[in-house]
Amino acid sequence: MSAELDTFPKLLLHHAEVRPKAPAMREKDYGIWLTSSWGAARAEIEALACGLHQRGFRRGDRLAIVGDNRPRLYWAMCAAQALGGVPDFLHHYEALVAEGRDFARRHPQFFADEVAKGRGGDVSIMCYTSGTTGNPKGVVLTFDNVLQSARNGAEFEGLSDKEDMLAYLPMAWVGDHIFSYAQSYAVGFCVSCPESGATVMQDLRELGPTYFFDASAIKRRAFHYFMGVARRAGIRILNGQPVPLGDRLLYALGELLVYGPLKNTLGLTRVRLAYTAGEAIGPDIFDFYRSLGVNLKQLYGSTEASVFVTIQPDGEIYADTVGKPAPGVE
Description:
Layout: H1 8-18, E1 23-29, E2 32-37, H2 38-54, E3 62-63, H3 71-82, E4 86-87, H4 93-106, H5 110-116, E5 123-128, E6 138-142, H6 143-157, E7 164-166, H7 174-187, E8 190-193, H8 200-207, E9 211-214, H9 227-238, H10 245-266, E10 273-276, H11 283-291, E11 296-302, E12 307-311, E13 324-325
Parallel strand pairs: 1-8, 3-4, 7-8, 9-10, 10-11
Antiparallel strand pairs: 1-2, 5-6, 11-12, 12-13
Helix pairs in contact: 1-2, 1-3, 2-3, 2-4, 6-7, 9-10, 9-11
């Protein structure tokens, strides 16, 4: 791992320098998507970090973050990390930012100096297990833990800074931390936050993410006409296997009349890669989504491993497996 970019605050400064105007995060407010660039995110996080410092937050301290998926909460996470603290899933956010901006004007080098003190072996975050076998447990992860997993997964799947991700899962869960935060900082893609939990499906359709994670069983959808063609041809086309000309033509017609509109209804029109994990969804639903042309993969992960334990490689995707060991996993 690069010693120069071994923490999320260092990656923030990197993206703010090389792609200052590129979108970093979006938030839907009163029906309107508001976009913040990497340059704007850096300025906000610097103000937050300076405000926290003014309030007495120091290296080694812990910051509790409670709330729905919002850019300001992800930024507060990075601000705490910039000061050498640990976000442990604010009070008077605007006042804190204003205080921080005033401090930053008087100490313009403070933020960059604090970021430079961070090391990959430092504690990055405390995430919580799901609690399926008992009470949820806090798992302490270092920057090296999280960034190595995020980078390995991104390289394995060929993620780029052109991806779009919707952040809708609980922030205290390691899955959201990897997909909505760590990989965004590692690669530089944009993460969008829905207006509320009740509008996730509508916001998903509007946004059309290219990268998507669903931790629960994907709901069954009624689908009849062209389903036989989809099952015969869709998966083979997705896997790059030969398909009879007749089925290929029928599938193209189905894409125009049925599969395309259905994917649009589900908000999956632009999805290039989608994961499902946790409860097994069953071969019928798994094959259904892949037959539509959605590159759905199963993975196995854990909080302690920073998510990725096994991943399904392209061309080796089956409903009854969770793939092969992820890069860096033995």
